[in-house]
Amino acid sequence: MLRIALDMDEVVADVLPKFLDLFEQYNGKRPSPEELAGRKIYDLPGGKQVRQHIYDKGFFLDLPLIPGAKEGVLELSKHYEIFFVTAAQEFRNSFEDKYDWLIQHFPFIDWRHFVFCGDKSVIQTDYLLDDHAFNLRTFSGKGLLFTAYHNLNETEFTRLDDWSEVLAFFENERTTKSTAP
Ligand SMILES: [Mg+2]
Fold this sequence. Notes:
Elements: E1 3-6, H1 16-27, H2 33-36, H3 48-52, H4 69-76, E2 81-86, H5 94-105, E3 114-116, E4 127-130, H6 133-137, E5 142-146, E6 158-160, H7 163-179
Parallel strand pairs: 1-2, 1-4, 2-3, 4-5, 5-6
Helix pairs in contact: 4-7
Bound molecules: magnesium ion.
């Protein structure tokens, strides 16, 4: 089986609703889609305090799923070996939260396939699905960019807007490969 590495935040775990709530808490309003396009919410004027909360214990524990992610990963797991690869090191409190979150939402993925790493260039799977172009740039396999507001201006990688596009991409990969001479 070919192997797929899946990033967590903004690929299967939705951090944006929490960020938007925090931004509103501090600034009395939510940023518009235009303001969010091409940048991180915490790089907006008034966004700095939002970032501090990423260090809080529990921040990553109750994040909602990205729509379709659970069903999507289950479907992919029938055809590929799935690994969750997340840069947890930057936020020491995130380790336990992320582990518990994965166990809760993806009980069908073995804990041996949870990879907490810093530099993702060490990952040698066949595919990496991530919302950060810098992770894809150092990846030796096929890098896939999962659309998020902050990466809307990236043009370097195959872009997948949502989980239905992810499934369609991999279905096409399998069809193309099985019909190749
Ligand atoms: Mg991410």
